[in-house]
From TrEMBL:
One Pfam short name: Na_Ca_ex
Sodium/calcium exchanger membrane region domain sequence ranges: 3-141, 175-313
Protein name: Sodium/calcium exchanger membrane region domain-containing protein
GO CC annotation: membrane
Subcellular location: Membrane
InterPro entries: NaCa_Exmemb, NCX_ion-bd_dom_sf
Main location: membrane
Transmembrane segments: 6-24, 36-62, 68-86, 107-124, 168-193, 205-228, 235-258, 270-289, 296-319
GO BP annotations, alphabetical order: transmembrane transport
Lineage: unclassified sequences, metagenomes, ecological metagenomes
Membrane topology: Multi-pass membrane protein
Alphabetical UniProt keywords: Membrane, Transmembrane, Transmembrane helix
Amino acid sequence: MIWLKFLISAAIIVWAGIRLTYYVDQLSDRLQLGKVWLGVVLLGFITSLPEVISSLSAVIFLNADDLALGNLLGSNNFNPMLLVVMDVVYRKGSITNAIVPHRSYRAAAGFAVVLTVIVMAGLWLPLGRISSFIIAGVYFCGMRYLACLEKEPSTETKKDESVIQRSLSGIVGNIVFSSILVIGAAIWLAGLADNLAAQTGLGRTFFGSIFLALVTSLPEMVVSLSALKLGAFDLAVGNIFGSNMTNIFIVSLCEVFHKGGAFLSGVSQTHILTATLSIVLTCVAVAGIELKNKKSFLGVGLDSFIMILLFLIGTQILYQLR
């Protein structure tokens, strides 16, 4: 029964994620905003709502710090892997060759890597709460910088004139409604995940880094595949790297609501492996986009095969350390 509830909550998140993608895309056309910026900043934040709620719920109500951090770092491993999923679905050669490089991609990915390194420092060194404050500062600096980059034109400039004429309040209302559904399902999901971690014997660190992270990354997956279908690569890639930035920022929110000592001081150092894997996968993804990889095997780019191999090796090591 608990697995059925887990799947139901995941289904709600997927359905709400589809709605969010649709209406954020409409908001882009309605306000004449660049899809890159909306993908990185707005959609990246919205699709991170499951991570926000599930991680905060794990900290506040369950005292499950390892589950919370594992969810955040694990999601940052799954998000770059969405480029692999897009590559498989695309079937027109390497997806990274089709994506036009954009400064916002590089900036968001770069800030995500820097933020992850700060988390690793907080796990390894006795920095106390300082690391979480630094994370918040770097995140807001990154958002400010990305806002400045919004002036750079998107690679997708076509606007839907019918959407431009639609009610702004209706679009925003649907975004808010979908967000509420995501929040409610994520709260439910966090409690179910903690119970499943205990029942399966997999432990909070491994379960959070793999199963909970996978489910809370479903909105990003839905967004990426929906954007791919629309040919809106800006929206998809911006969402992936923007979500990774937001996920690390959530660490500072966990610090605010954490009871006792510093949040990062009380969790397993196994998370350093998860964080390292996140950095490596992000770097490979960005390199594939920047270098315009044209080589493919069975219609899938070689960079995707590299990412799959790295992800499987990292997951196996994490399982052994659980």
